[in-house]
Amino acid sequence: MTWIDQAINGLKRTDIEMIAYLPDTTISPLVEAAKDDDAFETVLVTREEAAVGVLSGAWLGGKRGALLCQSSGLANTFNALSSLSMPARLPFLGIVTRRGDLGEFNLAQVTSGYNMPELLDDVNVRNHSVHDEDNVEERVRMAATTAFSTETPYVLLMETTVTGYKEESK
Q1: Which residues, listed in sequence order, are joined to residue 18 by a DSSP beta bridge?
Q2: In a domain, 169, yes or no
Q3: What is the pLDDT of residues 17-35, one digit of tens each?
Q4: What is the C-alpha separation between 106 and 24, in angstroms, rounded?
Q5: Which residues form the domain of 21?
Q6: Burial per residue of 16-39, b for 16 or more beta-carbon CB atoms within 10 angstroms, e otherwise
Q7: pLDDT at 104
Q8: How does DSSP classify residue 124?
Q9: Which of 38, 44, 162, 169 has the most crowded Cβ, counting Cβ within 10 A?
Q10: Which residues pair with 65 in a beta bridge?
Q11: Vertex 105, ends 94 and 160: CA angle to 5°?
């Protein structure tokens, strides 16, 4: 079973109903799988911090939601997480493809991507890096359980050892 199939299963098993996303090459197969599955309502957002608002509204309306994006985009959410989600106890799950580390060719991805776990720690958003494709479903379920039981955001960073990496065009 691929990491994508496992992630979809983990989302379903934890009653995630809404997916907010920004397209990216690496996360696109997961986004497409969610869009093709009737279990999810998908919402394309123009900026990642808008997803925090969409998912906060979903929670207030009785739905659980998840954000799918890449790590450089996740950095755009920090103000919304710090000023809305954290103080108002509005949970969501982030499934984020990690850029800026192993296999990275784009220097612009390194600044926030390489340091993303520490940056999330600095804004008090719990996070976990997933390095092994074999346990994606379990990690998604565990992260969602933590996020929704504690009413706080939780981010899973999907490492390139799971997702593969984006190769430089020549």
Answers
A1: 41, 65
A2: no
A3: 999 999 888 899 999 999 9
A4: 14
A5: 3-163
A6: bbbbbbbebebbeebbebbeeeee
A7: 61
A8: T
A9: 162
A10: 18
A11: 40
Angle between the 3-13 and 28-35 helix axes, to the nearest 10 degrees? 50
The answer to whether the beta carbons of residues 21 and 43 sit under 8 Å apart is yes
Element at 58 (helix H, strand E): helix 48-60
Does this model's pTM top 0.90? My answer is yes
Give the integer Cα–Cα distance in Å for 84 and 5: 31
DSSP for residue 168: P
CATH of the domain at 81: 3.40.50.970
CB 158 within 8 A of CB 3: yes
Q: Compute how many other C-beta atoms are within 10 angstroms of the C-beta atom of residue 60.
A: 10
CA-CA distance, 156 to 147, in Å (whole number)? 11
Number of domains present in the structure of the chain: 1
What whole-number distance in Å separates Cα of residue 69 and Cα of residue 164? 15
Tell me if 168 is assigned to some domain. no
Alpha carbons 15 and 21: distance in angstroms, whole number: 17
Extract the tokens encoding 138: 């379990």
Longest dimension (CA), the chain: 47
Q: Is residue 170 part of a domain?
A: no
Answer whether residue 134 shows pLDDT above 80. Answer: yes
